[in-house]
Amino acid sequence: MAVKSGLLLLLPCTALSTVVAPTASNCIADALPTPSVFGASVLSIDAFESTLESTSVSFCNVTLTYTHPGQDDLIKVWLGLPSAWNGRFQGVGGGGWATGFPSEMVPAISQGYATVSTDGGHDAVGQTTDSWALLSPGNVNLYALQNLASVALNDMTVLGKQMTEAYYGKPISKSYWAGCSTGGRQGLVMAQRYPDAYDGILAPAPAVNWAELIPAMFWPQWVMHKLGYFAPQCELDAITAAAISACDELDGLKDGIVGLTGLCDFDPNTVVGQQYTCGNITGSISTEAAEIARATWTGATDGQGNVQWPGIAPGAPLSALAGTTCDSNGRNCTGTPFPVSTDWHRLFIKKDSTFDPYNYTQAAWNAAFHASVQQYTSTLGTSDPDLSEFKNAGGKIITWHGMADRSIPFNNTLIYYDRVLALDANATDFYRVYLAPGVDHCAGGVGAAPTDPLVALVSWVEDGVVPRVLAANRTVDGSMWKRELCLYPLVSIYKGGDPAAAASYSCER
Question: What range does the record give for the signal peptide (predicted)?
Answer without folding.
Answer: 1-17
